[in-house]
Fold this protein.
Amino acid sequence: MAQDQDRRQTKAERKEQARRERIELERRIASRKRGRRRVLIVGVVVIAIVGGVIVALSHGNGNGADGSASPSVTVQLPDPAKLPGILRTAPPWPDNIDQANARMAKMSELSLPQLGAVLHHHANLLIYVDGQQFPIAAGIGYNPDSNVFSPLHTHDTSGVVHIESADPTFQPVLGQFFDVWGVYLTKECLGDKCAAGHSTLHAFVNGKEWTGDPTQIPLNDQLVIVLAFGSADQVPNPVPASFVPPA
């Protein structure tokens, strides 16, 4: 019976049936293409979102290391005025090793880990007071004879600060180094100097002015940190910004 119906189809009917089948096939192909386009668009959007998140995190984890902003994470520090052997005197300052372990004991209650080699990098520190540069003492935080082994220390007077920690997640800040050293540093004071009139504490990171609390400057790898106490015209010009590796 079905064969009789097929034989009864006219040429026009067969042509119309073929046209409908072709339209249906084209519809299915177009539908698949739209589906692929939607998948591609979604993929591009996801990549863009992930990229944006990565960029945001990279800026956040930079802790304002370019000097243009304050750090995203603030490290809790002890009151330096209450640390044993703190120096509120004029520079230059010695290694101040005598009560270093007592200071580090206070700091370890907060955030100072043990010396180690899991994390190991370096930063430069330069200090100017009233336009004059002063050296960073050798042996800050490291003296085997005195059994002093800080993860933040110096080996010479080059201004290279060594960061050597047993904790790979350690994110030290400048205030911790000064507390190990036992030299008074706050947002407005350095040693015996505190902000008054036109004389203030200026801080720079890689040549850019640091706008936050200088004690919170991160000791990231190969940063060049400059502290200059005095008037604006006593700040070094240009501000040092080239990293000097350890000898």
About this structure: Residues 101 and 139 are 13 Å apart (CA to CA). The radius of gyration is 33 Å.
